[in-house]
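quick one: magnesium ion bound model?
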Amino acid sequence: MPIKQLPVELANQIAAGEVVERPASIVKELVENALDAKASELVIDIESGGAKRIRIRDNGVGIPRDELALALSRHATSKIADIDDLEAITSLGFRGEALASISSVSRLRLVSKPAEQSAAWQAWSEGKDMQVRIEPASHPDGTTVDIQDVFYNTPARRKFLRTDKTEFGHIDEVIKRIALSRWDIDITLNHNGKRVRYYPAVSEHDQLHWRRRLAKVCGSGFAQDALYFQQHAHDIHIEGWLAAPEQCRHQGDVQYSFVNGRMMKDKLINHAIRQAYDSFLTAERVPTFAIYLTVPADQVDVNVHPAKHEVRFHQQRQVHDFVLNTVKQLLLGQHQEDTNSASD
Ligand code: ADP
Ligand code: MG
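yep, here:
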């Protein structure tokens, strides 16, 4: 075959292969966009596990009419402008790919109204060259992304969708992670017209409501008993909750880590925590935690994986040992307290 330029839609579908694994990955991208747009309220409507519909409404800054087409095209972003910005990412998104990718494998409609614009507009793209169409719409300040029929035009991908219940379970988990990473956001999650989760916004220093949200996400046992801690050294801040070894769970469903507000499945952090717990845990229990790491943005590379759930720390060893030692000291202190009170 001679060399040919791929049609835009096909190129975007190929790119979608990296970020859009299932409905939950779409939800993650859209919610991250809403958070980057400084929304304080999110309403997420899901139908049939997300395969049929995913609709996310936010009250963020919105997208001006003349930027709607760009928002839907690939490699277009308002979050970085040059290579220096890439060295110190402070937003959740930066690749400028999500909307273009998602809209190439579903029916996507973007409706938005910035506060300073008098009316709302909606946009969607069509055809092999993904031409963007724009029409007037009605919408309050903010943005709604409405997605229907995920993978309708990529049957090979559609085949890999699991039951509605399983797919919704993945979405629920994504939203739990968001609920843990952003206490200040009011989040509603509906499935098939029924409200399934509601996480009211919590103000910054409100321990009672913190624990209440923690209970909703991690279970009331963890929220009641977990040890809260904070530690700071060499520009790294760590805080969060740890279960005492004898209160750790049997499954690994409460193992949450965040780096600079981004939800992570980071091997380095998980390894450090596992090692810290190691000598305290009996075989049937696993580390149970929600921890938050804050490092200077230029000390961590988030451009490692398209789905952005891994990072690379510049000072790997230092971060690892800091997490390890902090967690270990805390568990050790707890252990000694227990032994002392047992011998009283
Ligand atoms: P990225 O988030 O990497 O920039 P996306 O494809 O997810 O790329 O989004 C493209 C652009 O569209 C963003 O940079 C942003 O300017 C705009 N955008 C997307 N979603 C929203 C939203 N909910 N509110 C405001 N702007 C948005
Ligand atoms: Mg994005």
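The first strand starts at residue 41 and ends at 47.
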